Amino acid sequence: MASNVTTAKETNVIDKSKIARVRELDFATLFGENINSLITMLGVTRKIPVTAGAVLKKLTVTGTLDSSTVGEGEIIPLSQYQTTWTAVGEITLNKYRKATTAEAIIKGGFDQAVNETDKRMILDIQKSVRAGLVASLDDDDATKVSGSTLQEVLAKEWGQLQVKFEDDAIQAVYFVNPLDVADYLSTAQITVQTAFGFSYVENFLGLGTVIMTPQITQGEVYATAAQNIVAYYINVNESNGLGDAFEFTTDPETGFVGIHEDSNYTRLQNETVAVSGVTFFAEMPAGIIKGTLSVDSE
Which pLDDT band, with edges at 50, 70 and 90, does 297 fall under? Predict the structure, then answer.
């Protein structure tokens, strides 16, 4: 009598490849959510998708307003302004890879050897994005101020921003070393929040959002308008050739990062590859204020 039992693989079976896909999606979605929380915290309104190799530029506006008195019927003199775009580099697709050997998996277990190290790699990728944002603030064309206290420096920077962006209702954003604000935080009843690895305080002293990061040198305070910060990114989701050659799992909302996990049987190791091209920077150097905490000598 013939058996009715089939040996074919059932449909909708949750196999190893589907589990890997879920892990990839978890990491990619977490990265995308964290980036979006950073964008919300910074108040960034411009997210610009570009292709790899696109030239990033900073804008400089120079000129003079002709405010001469004009008599009745006379020709109104022209005010002269020039805009200059300066290239600051190209946006690149950053590539990362991590490999975990079979021996490491046996010793520590899959979750510890692979999942936990994947999480750390994502955190380190986020750290590199934060470092790029902070580095973009250190510009020679930034306006300089100084003060003997943090409150004094922040107030002066706030005033400069009102002058620089007098025609805009701006949201001021400040970047400060945690050691420079620690004394104030120890006595003030305020709420410290986190986004994308940054600690921040909203409406600090009524002046704007203060972001605390050790990537800022102690004694220095940077400020700019949220409207001056631009987010450029390579969308891994789009038809830019990546999808034709590689299989990346991405955050479907943004495409900020692509994750792929696979097994290398030649070396008997698990490999995770991540790609991301996200760059934040202040577009107008003249809209950056660099403050210095100076201790008065007695």
Answer: very low
Q: Give Cα 148 distance to the centre of its chain.
A: 30
> What value does the mean pLDDT take over residues 73-88?
79
Report how far residue 35's alpha carbon sits from residue 257's, in angstroms, rounded to the nearest whole number.
10
* H, E, C per residue of the chain: CCCCCCCCCCCCCCCHHHHHHHHHHHHHHHHHHHHHHHHHHHCCCEEEECCCCCEEEEEEEEEECCCCCCCCCCCCCCCEEEEEEEEEEECCCEEEEEEEEHHHHHHHCHHHHHHHHHHHHHHHHHHHHHHHHHHHHCCCCCEEEEECCHHHHHHHHHHHHHHHCCCCCCCEEEEECHHHHHHHHHHCCCCCEEECCEEEECCHHHCCEEEECCCCCCCEEEEEEHHHEEEEECCCCCCCCHHHHCCCEECCCCCCEEEEEEEECCCCEEEEEEEECEEEEECCHHHEEEEEECCCCC
Terminus-to-terminus CA distance in the chain, angstroms? 105
Q: How far is CA 262 from CA 99, 153, 268, in A?
A: 10, 51, 11
Q: Let me know: does 146 contact 294? Beta carbons within 8 Å.
A: yes
- pLDDT tens sequence across 220-269: 999 999 888 888 888 876 655 566 778 888 877 777 888 999 999 999 99
pLDDT at residue 270 in the model: 93
The 3-state secondary structure of 72-83 reads CCCCCCCCEEEE
CATH code assigned to 16-62+80-293: 3.90.1690
> And the tokens for 70?
């004009």
Q: Are 82 and 63 in contact (CB under 8 A)?
A: yes
pLDDT at residue 241 in the model: 59
Q: What span, in angstroms and rounded, lies between the C-alpha atoms of 146 and 157?
A: 9
- Is the pLDDT score of 2 beyond 70? no
